[in-house]
Amino acid sequence: MTVTAQPAVSADRESQLLASVPTGLLINGEWRDAASGKTFDVEDPATGKVLLSIADAGAEDGAAALDAAVAAQESWAKVPPRERGEILRRAFELVTERAEDFALLMTMEMGKPLAEARGEVTYGAEFLRWFSEEAVRAFGRYSVSPDGKSRLLVTKKPVGPCLLITPWNFPLAMATRKIAPAVAAGCTMVLKSANLTPLTSQLFAAVMQEAGLPAGVLNVIPTSTAGATTGPLIKDARLRKLSFTGSTEVGRRLLSDASETVLRTSMELGGNAPFVVFEDADLDAAVAGAMLAKLRNMGEACTAANRFIVHESVATEFAEKFAAKMKEMTTARGTEPESKVGPLIDAKSRDKVHELVSDAVASGAKAVLGGAPVDGPGYFYQPTILAGVTEGTRILSEEIFGPVAPIITFSSEDDAVRLANNTEYGLVAYVFTKDLNRGIRMGERLETGMLGLNAGVISNAAAPFGGVKQSGLGREGGLEGIEEYLYTQYIGIADPYAG
Ligand SMILES: NC(=O)c1ccc[n+]([C@@H]2O[C@H](COP(=O)([O-])OP(=O)(O)OC[C@H]3O[C@@H](n4cnc5c(N)ncnc54)[C@H](O)[C@@H]3O)[C@@H](O)[C@H]2O)c1
Ligand SMILES: O=CCCC(=O)O
């Protein structure tokens, strides 16, 4: 998250980039208007100004997108894996060539500083490269049955047409983390991008076309009416998979809808990551990790450290060092050279962050730093550290999704484990200690899908990303990521030596 000096971005450059973004729906390889003719506005969270208006899909468009995906499925599944991989590889190269465009577009529609947006381009593109390599490794097996009387042939097949629903906070990476494995596996798809940040997906879909993806494989339906547009698709028996990334609240609802057709699902949901600092930790390293785990994406990440659980003997020193670093974080529009913390996504999100901070302060916590919205245009919030937060305070049980770090203390390892596991979520946890045995032990004791050991960011296209408890079902990335888009078929073969 190093932000290096950069020239300010000109208004002309922004206008030219916006002019290159397709504003239609992508259905069966063609960009078209919504059937209703409606559009919706996409705003810049740093200024509140409208960036672009794009086609607003309704149920009729959703149905047309699924029709296209269903029609393309059979022929797409027959395309050789190497060819599918090569399309992904070309897409990786095109995204990398256009890295500055993707980064600027994300900064404009989502708010993150340009340096961070560039980091997301690298991260998001890496899913394309990783799955271009995995496309040729969807292996099955052949074996002799234990009694020797038959042969067992096990193969992997594409699950079929998928509905992919993505959130606003990582506009490129959350899309490529789903699209790349689906393409590699031989699935067709309908992408419902986030209504707050659909522009990056629009540009990315154009890149996939340029990379040679056949018509109908990827259909894109931005919409301001998510439920009404995707609800009928989830109930349509031709849809074979729903992959959702977003809040636990919406995920729960979609899981219930998906049960009607026993639809296969992947759910990447919310988090409430504990960041545990033991008394033997290297405190400077812990603070560096805390800066990443808390301020990456302005704290608007499912992986954001949500509770700093610090040993009582080092809590004051940790808070002071952490505050000294946080103080250096200038809030400004992400295109400004000095920007280190961009705006939050909208007024509602900022109000929620402030409500949680105010509640914690009213319950006895002390704002060591910050504690209020930033005056002026945009939805900026001051980087904030709250010390002396006590168990039971709301901020410890809800996703903050902002640059706010609540600190609570512990006195023993058992105490730290109890506090860390005291949540319905289980996406990621962070542990800082010099004692490797303790680190491994924490891995075994914490209820979490992922653990950062002396590390504040562990996201990696080659790693299985996902949670336990109410943080979700399934994994994205890694060797596991493609499995979400494959089903296993078993063919039993009669004894080849029998009569
Ligand atoms: N686990 C992960 O990998 C991961 C990654 C990123 C974000 N998240 C989580 O996402 C949340 C933030 O993102 P968000 O605010 O966009 O979440 P959200 O749940 O509000 O929306 C996610 C997506 O679902 C759509 N949606 C909303 N209601 C819907 C409905 N009834 N039917 C169909 N689609 C619907 C939205 O338009 C958006 O595209 C946080 O909770 C965060 O932790 C999780
Ligand atoms: O918001 C959650 C996704 C973050 C990540 O993939 O690192």
TrEMBL record:
Pfam families named in the record: Aldedh
Active site residues according to the UniProt entry: 268
Keyword check for Magnesium: no
Keywords of this entry: Oxidoreductase
Aldehyde dehydrogenase domain boundaries: 31-490
GO terms, biological process: gamma-aminobutyric acid catabolic process
Highest taxon listed in the record's lineage: Bacteria
GO MF term set: succinate-semialdehyde dehydrogenase (NAD+) activity
Family to which the UniProt record says this protein belongs: Belongs to the aldehyde dehydrogenase family.
Protein name per its UniProtKB record: Aldehyde dehydrogenase
Organism: Arthrobacter nitrophenolicus
Biological classification of the source: Bacteria, Bacillati, Actinomycetota, Actinomycetes, Micrococcales
